[in-house]
Write a structure and sequence with these properties.
Layout: H1 2-40, H2 42-45, H3 52-68, H4 76-99, H5 108-119, H6 133-143, H7 175-181, H8 199-217, E1 229-230, H9 231-235, H10 241-257, E2 260-264, E3 270-274, H11 298-307
Antiparallel strand pairs: 1-3, 2-3
Helix pairs in contact: 1-3, 1-4, 3-4, 8-10
Biased composition (Basic and acidic residues): 164-176
Region (Disordered): 1-25, 164-202
Family: Belongs to the NSE4 family.
């Protein structure tokens, strides 16, 4: 019994496969006929008034619906034939669209004839009859749905008697009046000796004073060289934190111009000594310049005063500039 059932099952599978193959062959034949018809009737299909291209697309949709329902293997060949037809149809559709002529020109005479025909007052080609009031009412009732409200009458530029704007007369200067008034007198500006100095001039003066102070506080040896002093002893002002910052700022110009030299001693503390500005025309060796950023805050300033036991400033305390408190 088992062998007989197997034979019957094998015969059933073979019959279904043969039916599937025959159905695929019919679909391929229909697709090829559709493509051939499209190419054969191409001149007729591109006409603007022809509906043949649409009918062919409907037939291709029906065939593609059958392709989707095919069982077993993927319908590769049928899908390729469908793509070939769509390419040919899209090319013909593009040609058909280019041949469509749209005339948007407005012909007043044609429009008038259509209005007269709509109002039914006279036939086309008859010009001797008059348009009665009831015919105009017919036209109004036909055009009423296109307007929600009546159009109001408005002026584009105000009243019709609008006058052009008048140009204002330009006033000319009287040269004789200026000559009679005489030359303009400019008031003299009173200058103060201290207030007229720019920040650059004030800085230059302080730098020159610092050079003289540095030469005074540094002792000379027998060979003419200077004994260095502590950098902090020179710049720290125990009486004013702000003037300590100013001293550090002014001293940077001495180092930049070569009037002083800063280096570390045996205890790795910075010391300073005056020197002669370097001149490259007189010396053969090159001078190596280094830049260092110096930062100091209030706590460090107090600590330096205590560590180095600074009681009096080497650079005299400068008088503070008067501050305006807003009182006259």
């Amino acid at each position: 019994m088992t062998e007989q059932n197997g034979r019957r099952g094998g015969r059933g599978d073979g019959a279904s496969q043969e039916s599937d193959i025959n159905e695929r062959r019919e679909l391929r034949r229909d697709y090829r006929e559709l493509i051939a018809e499209t190419k054969r009737e191409s001149s007729e299909l591109v006409r603007p008034d022809s509906d043949g291209l649409g009918n062919l697309l409907e037939r291709s949709d029906e065939l593609f619906g059958q392709v989707i329902k095919l069982p077993n293997r993927a319908p590769t060949v049928e899908a390729v034939l469908d793509a070939q037809f769509l390419m040919a149809a899209s090319s013909l559709g593009c040609q058909k669209a280019k041949k469509i002529h749209v005339d948007n020109k407005f012909d007043p005479k044609d429009f008038v004839q259509k209005l007269i025909s709509f109002m039914e007052c006279r036939r086309l080609g008859i010009e001797d009859s008059e348009i009665e009031e009831e015919h105009w009412a017919t036209l109004g009732r036909g055009a009423a749905p296109a307007f929600r409200s009546a159009c109001s009458f408005q002026f584009m530029l105000g009243t019709f008697e609008r006058e052009p704007p008048r140009k204002a007369a330009r006033k000319t200067k009287d040269a004789n009046a200026e000559e009679q008034a005489g030359p303009a007198i400019v008031a003299k500006q009173l200058k103060s000796k201290d207030k007229d100095k720019t920040p650059t001039e004030v800085t230059s003066e302080e730098v020159e004073k610092m050079v003289a102070i540095l030469h005074q506080v540094c002792k000379t040896r027998g060979d003419g060289t200077y004994v260095p002093i502590s950098y902090f002893d020179l710049v720290i002002n125990p009486e004013s934190f702000s003037q300590t910052v100013e001293n550090i700022f002014h001293l940077s110009f001495l180092l930049k111009d070569g009037h002083a030299k800063v280096y570390l001693d045996n205890d790795d503390l910075p010391v300073i000594v005056p020197c002669t500005p370097f001149n490259e025309e007189q010396e053969h060796e090159r001078v190596t310049k280094k830049q260092v950023l110096v930062s100091i805050d209030m706590d460090q300033w107090k600590e330096l005063i205590e560590v180095f036991d600074i009681n009096d400033p080497l650079i005299p305390t400068r008088p503070e500039p008067p501050h305006s408190n807003g009182n006259m």
